[in-house]
Amino acid sequence: MADYSEAYVAFDTSKLRNAVAIAEGGRTGEVRFLGDIDNTAVAVRRLVKKLSGKYTRLVFCYEAGPTGYGVQRLIRDLGYECTVVAPSLVPKKPGDRVKTNRRDAVALAKLMRAGELTAVWVPDERHEAMRDLTRARGMAVVDQRAKCQQVTALLLRLGRHYAGKSKWGKAHWAWLNRQELGQPEQRIVFEEMLLALRQAQERIKRLEEAIRAAVPEWSLEPVVTALMALRGIDLVSATVFLAEIGDLSRFRTPRELMGYLGLVPSENSTGETIRRGAITKAGNRRARRVLVESAWSYRYPPRVGRAKQLRVEAAPSAVRAIAWKAQIRLYARYRALLRRGKLKTVAITALARELAGFIWAISREVTPPLTQTN
Predict the structure, then answer these.
(1) Where in the chain is the domain with CATH 3.30.420.10?
(2) Using CB atoms within 10 A as the burial measure, which of 196, 254, 351, 369 is most buried?
(3) CATH class for the domain made up of 6-114
(4) 225-269 pLDDT, tens digit each
(5) Residue among 136, 288, 285 nearest 209 (CA)
(6) Rounded to whole angstroms, how far apart are CA atoms 57 and 22?
(7) Are strands 17-24 and 6-12 parallel, antiparallel or unpaired?
(8) Residue 28 — pLDDT band, cuts 50, 70, 90?
(9) Contact criterion met (CB below 8 Å) for 179 and 190
């Protein structure tokens, strides 16, 4: 048995090989590079078995990245703790200009032993699948937007301008179908663009139907139903938000959720001088974008439309009270910010921050108390 009964093992992961370093427990414990292993389950099991025969306690870590959470789940199933680290929050020396897999693994092991690393939340396989589904829908929306811009750019170059108020509705599509281009080659290009656009729209519809079919079997379905009582949030946006954030009960206060979403002001203060700037934009950008888009609906006076009424009635009474309070509060907040001369975009960002607090409150109403204490 070694002098130290515990050790901290760090991986610098890549597609084919993982660099491995170890830091033995204690302030003076040895830190050394163990070498590279294949990025396979067999190689990881062999490494864990080898180290478990030497140390009574092992703690593993690696940075979150494109290789996913497979290593974490494998080590967890073997009965050991494995932390997935937030790469943006790993401390780095300002003067260090050399970066290699070996140095990164050694640095991670040292920082893990010192308790200087910040863990990310690791979803289970079902939750990760829901996240993949919502992200596929998001990519389809981006693809549709690009194809719309291509059609508009072609017509603009040919001097064709749509005089209607809104684009991509029935009237706009009817106008597009009436367009006759003089050159046959341009007509082919135009028809191909319209076909690609229709296919992108159909793809979005298919993915949204898949989301609707998957939500009833999801563990966070009660929270999705509850969030739909809020103005500006439907089934798709609620699912996207929860798929990105996960179980909201892990945030002890609404301010923690706001900070995680990057909706709190940045600060650069020293001594008696306090300087606050724009929002940090830290955390998950997809979830933050959902909140900002939803916050735009609070520009209007509080009301519950006919289509929204069914979603509100499906929520518990406590949730309905929070949703109505959010409408009153955020509309008044928006008007007050405009009177103070704030830009609309700044006001909407402030509303998105407060909307995160209302979402946190709703999640506490529908999340079982046992989960909230975890």
Answers:
(1) 6-114
(2) 351
(3) alpha beta
(4) 999 999 999 999 999 999 999 989 889 999 999 999 999 988 777
(5) 136
(6) 13
(7) antiparallel
(8) confident
(9) yes
